[in-house]
Amino acid sequence: MRQRFEQQMNLRTVAISDVKFPLKSRDELPPVLKALQYIFITPELNEKVFQLLEEKICSGKKKTGRKGMDLWHILVLAVVRHACSTNWDTLETWANHHELVRRVMGVHATAFIEDEKIEFNYQSILDNVSLLDEALLLDIDKLVVDAGHKLV
């Protein structure tokens, strides 16, 4: 049973729409995460992307059972992995310890108590992120490029 993503806002969490990025960084990760943030905060693009994800991942699956990784978490990790050409071990480290990645995933806790920190284990990341193939990521890329053309 998967869900798209529902961020439970409280004093400890940072809203995905409020995530700030380093503007002078030459690293490839901040622009990728900024694009993911744009997907999340743009309703029509968000809907189209989640429809593609649901068709690929959730079709033919029962709506009962143990809660799986959110579709948003899978998308963020898949895009980060492909954009940065990283391996699964690095992706696990980023998913659990990289502040910007965790903020865009919607699971980063602020300086308050971190007793309920969401952790992603290696096997869960591998099993879930590998569900997204290159064709699906290219379809999502086309949606994002079309949205970018509408901005210009």
Protein described:
The chain has 152 residues and is mainly alpha-helical. The protein has one domain. The chain has helices at 29-41, 43-58, 71-84, 88-97, 99-105, 122-129, 134-151. It is globular and about 40 Å long.
Please give a quick description of this structure:
With 152 residues, the chain is mostly helical. It is 57% helix and 0% strand.
Radius of gyration of CA atoms, rounded to a whole number: 15 Å
Q: Tell me the helix content.
A: 55-70%
Q: How many strand units?
A: 0
Most strands sheet: none
Mean pLDDT: 84
Low-confidence stretches: none
Global shape: globular
Count the domains: 1
Share in β-strands: under 5%
Task: Describe the protein's topology.
Elements: H1 29-41, H2 43-58, H3 71-84, H4 88-97, H5 99-105, H6 122-129, H7 134-151
Helix pairs in contact: 1-3, 2-7, 4-5
Properties at a glance:
single chain; 152 residues; mainly alpha
